[in-house]
């Protein structure tokens, strides 16, 4: 035993010392020895002459004690210091009392203080310290310790002890009362460490809440106000993560902890408002906002005028927004606190503090509103801040301001002024809702009468006449005001409300865009607030306007716009609008635009919708009627399904619909579509006669509808199957008809073939291995064609390439294993052959996030099965092969490899490219210098993202890139395409903002600036714009940020 | 530097038109659809063929001369030296105060200081001039004047126009100018 003790005392930090400590701790826990035995054993050291020796002995004791409270924490269920608990683990009351005495006796021993505090903390944690001991020890700490003389750690321990004392022995500390407060304030006086300051602030707050501080509040305030306003910049890598905001908030909480601080705090806060530091001002205003309601109105009385003047400075339009907001909030808070302390509203006299404060605001505002030609935004915000605070403040201001404003509106008024006044009146109406209720609280008699009610005629007259103004701003601000007015109880008759909705409707259809935007905003609010009115007065009329022959084109478009937006805002509206639109679609009309618009509207309503529309049977209500219209309607002797715009839109509509559905409804929808379009059985659509050829056939007149078929099948969930169809023969049929049935090369045939390819790829991606194996075996001929073993026409070869690329993508995406990746290798091997350019230019199918240009085929949103990181794996697999191909071949083939690679690079995560950047730089440069526009374009896109995400990758060779980019901007010869010129300029413009070292870029600056002279005079506007922007940015490259 | 005009009037800037939700079909997704059609339409194209349709079309349709709006775009977002606001917000520059004459290769910009005794007027003029020197072709001569009757010392402000090169030698002045211009990039 003595060995262990001596072992520790010799070198506490060593491993042996630490082991000895835990061993001793364990023995005490096991009651092999008592703590007092331990004290006896260490006795010599405890009384040694050398203070460091003594400190070591104390640390042994503290270490063992701390260990004890961790291994056997005090039972938390028992009441704190319950007298019946005498023992916790190895500790009992008697030992604790002895040890507490020991701590007290030794506090003068400076070297041991840290461990003594640790030991006492452990004793406190055991909950066995008696109240007397707690009081006595606290007294000793105050007497013996000058806390600020110690290091940050020791101070922290001391504050922790104070905190534990307060939470465990509050009664005892209250007996100490003012002495405790004084002692603590001395202890924290001058504290500078942020962690400790935070701790102290929380203790101060605790004291304020729990002690009688009437005798000491001045001292308490003195201790905290010296910290105001806090400025603190956290050191880098601060382990505690304390921010300046934490400190500010804690300090502010202390300020706002008691009304007693009011008289002391106001002068300081107001003084800080005139500080030159914007930060200090901001802090002061935020503190005022927090404190004013606590301090109460009485405390501000003396400083009110000064406060008003300072705050007024901060609300001006020219101040930064945070500043203005903080000042306005402070005004609201001050108004609030003045209101609560003043007498009742009716007795409010001009001598009252609140009235005095509000009079300042009123005077300032009226001067600007009534005399200025263009009233300032700040005035409006100021009034708003004052009236939103309380009912008395609203009442007082409104009785003094509303009437003069209304009077000033009589006769000729400048438009800007009129608009501003309407906005102010609207604010009054809006706030009156808070205090006097709106139309929904009509029966509530407990609310006082709205003081604005006597003016209702004037309001209505003004706002409604504003609508016929020629000035946009007047109309808009009149509209907004009217919208608020109509929601207030008793301000407008039912008849007037009806008129209001009809007016909204009229504007939504006929007015210029800026005003319509406001009306739509209002209507969206109305759709949530009183949807019944919108459904009665607005929606049916809009639907009618959509089909009105006499309406102007713009009016019709506006009606559609409004319907689409309203559908977005409310379930009730959308479930009315969608069936109604489909109804319009079914009207036999010769108006192609109308049909297109309805379909477009339906599409937009469904796009981005994540969930199905409630209570809407989408198959019966939307899908079947739309499909029937699509295949049976003829307009001006042209079938609707030949209209590419319509077909594309319907296909987008159907894919959006599909994505909202669960797999069962999907199966249902798919079976309707497959029956009618693949099998040619249109009974589901209510069409009895069978069309000549099934839609899915390449020669079918209806083949355009394959877009729709693709939209449905490509968006099936993996667990949804296509009912009543043999998948294997369906796939084989598709291959046969698209590739070998002699289609001609035109947009329609290609559109058809590619949609079918997407279907094949989607099915293979979501099917099991057996289906895939069958497909590959059945269609071996395709591989022979691209391998060159079977000679075919160029067209068939190209089609096969595209199909097989789609199939490869589907499989690699599902499972990027070696066997699937081998298929990519095969394609790369074929690049050198004749027709390699076709493969390379279609490589995007393998890599793109969405290879179907926005339709989402084989993406996650179309429920494709996706392996983790498949794009990366594919890239890593293909990169060495493509680089080798690039290096081995002559110039002509080089660009083929590069093109294939550029497609892969464009879509892979930039971190992967970064990893390989050394090998890629020469290739990127070669791509920029290439004559192949598609290649250059793709490489530029890659460079653009690299400059954005990882500019350092290009830093080393930036000069070469800059030279090539400048060549691509066109300069004197406009040889490059506009897209390439614009992209090259965008890349150049990005460079100065990257973190590439200034030294490198500065050398290039003159060259770039003179090189961009040419593009500034480009014939095309977008190019000039980008050139100007890029050049301006290079000028701003000055080497310091 | 004390501020001349502590509380200038801030004007609502007509927001750039927001995208509307509803679009008639022929305007919707046009580029995307066309691109899809074009690429898909000719799967067999040798990659060099790809260019033609693109550049031909652009060269015919996209050609336009520099106009007032384009010049306005370049200067509207310049920051006022005194306030965190743009020249457009303060109505210091307005599109109707810009003229472009292609025959004479002359661009004339008139600006309106916020108050008649604004000591910043020269600096604002300098900022506008520097920005236009940087972003317009060299062939244009740029004239910048204070709107008649809006400044106490109109003539002396207008006289400063030829001293740009000298002003740009002054590193402090250059810094202030760059500060004001830094808000004007990436905005158009």
TrEMBL record, chain A:
Subcellular location: Nucleus
Source organism of this protein record: Physocladia obscura
Keyword match Lipid biosynthesis: no
Chief localization: nucleus
Domain MMS19 N-terminal: 43-316
Record keyword Amino-acid biosynthesis present: no
Function: Key component of the cytosolic iron-sulfur protein assembly (CIA) complex, a multiprotein complex that mediates the incorporation of iron-sulfur cluster into apoproteins specifically involved in DNA metabolism and genomic integrity. In the CIA complex, MMS19 acts as an adapter between early-acting CIA components and a subset of cellular target iron-sulfur proteins.
GO cellular component assignments: cytosolic [4Fe-4S] assembly targeting complex; nucleus
Protein name: MMS19 nucleotide excision repair protein
Domain MMS19 C-terminal residues, every copy: 561-992
Taxonomic path: Eukaryota, Fungi, Fungi incertae sedis, Chytridiomycota, Chytridiomycota incertae sedis
TrEMBL record, chain B:
Domain MIP18 family-like residues, every copy: 68-145
Source species, domain of life: Eukaryota
Keywords: Chromosome partition
Cellular component annotations (GO), alphabetically ordered: intracellular protein-containing complex; iron-sulfur cluster assembly complex
GO term, biological process aspect, one: protein maturation
Coiled coil location: none
Cited InterPro entries: FSCA_dom_sf, MIP18, MIP18-like
Any matching Pfam family: FeS_assembly_P
Similarity comment: Belongs to the MIP18 family.
Protein name according to UniProt: Cytosolic iron-sulfur assembly component 2B
Organism listed in the record: Physocladia obscura
Gene name per UniProt: CIAO2B
